[in-house]
Amino acid sequence: MTLLDKLMRPRVIGFGSLAVASLSLVAFWQAGASAIDNAPRDDGTYLETVVKSFEECSRLCEADSGTCRGAQSEQPDITKPLIICRLNNGFGANPLFPSVPPTPLNVNIAVTDLNAYRRTHGLAPVVLSEKLSKASQVHAEDLARHGNISHTGSDGSGHGDRVQRQGYYFSIAAENVATGQKSWERVFKAWQDSPGHNENLLRDDVTEFGIALVYEPKTAYQTYWAMVVAAPLEDAPNIRYMMPASPNSVKTH
């Protein structure tokens, strides 16, 4: 006997949440009604349990944010404080919280927006660098493969390593990463709103810029962003670099 068989008269409220950037959690809410359906589910539900409030169901999903993409709550009998909570990973043939692909990244718009933002702060523009974009792409792909967010690659590399592997030697290199945003506009705003990330956007000692977006719908975060700003160091074949106290920037020595 299912939980729905034990309870009656459904009322449905669903919500979903996504972790974004490296510092925040964003939730979206949706409400509606549904009829009881005892057919086998292939909608991404991976846990069904009874809770006493819609808020408790929400907290269960947030506590399992690495897997839970959303939760559906049903109150079969509104006279009783018993609520069926279904945690959902967004997968299955008919996902309750289907993956929505991000808006494709237009790097020309990204560099234009970044330079407009820098200009309002009296800073010189940066130019797009293929090598920095490649270093960003490598890291975004690595994050997507492992479904995490970090400045450290799965091979232990820092962003200074990844930049130099592209044959780019620098006097300064700084990196921003983020996960979950579905457009350049959203990730750019998230970085602006985060003091450490915003500092990298507005560095006065960088001249070049690279960015990448990787979409992996089978992971919790789905979108993985990496961005590098840097200044090249000419005629320096043997560069050493040292990680400072902040993980967001590297200076060469």
In short:
This protein is of the alpha+beta class and 253 residues long. The chain is built from 7 helices and 11 strands.
Question: Can you walk through the features of this model?
Answer:
This protein has 253 residues and is of the alpha+beta class. The chain is 27% helix and 28% strand. It is built from seven helices and eleven strands. A six-stranded mixed beta sheet has the order 6-8-9-7-11-10, with helices on both faces. A five-stranded antiparallel beta sheet has the order 2-1-4-5-3, with helices on one face. Helix 4 packs across helix 5. The longest helix has 17 residues. The protein is elongated, with a radius of gyration of 22 Å. The N terminus and C terminus are likely disordered.
Encode the helix/strand succession as letters: HEEEHEEHEHHEHHEEEE
Low-confidence stretches: 3-37, 236-253
Strand order of the largest sheet: 6-8-9-7-11-10
Radius of gyration: 22 Å
Helix content: 25-40%
What does the overall shape look like?
elongated
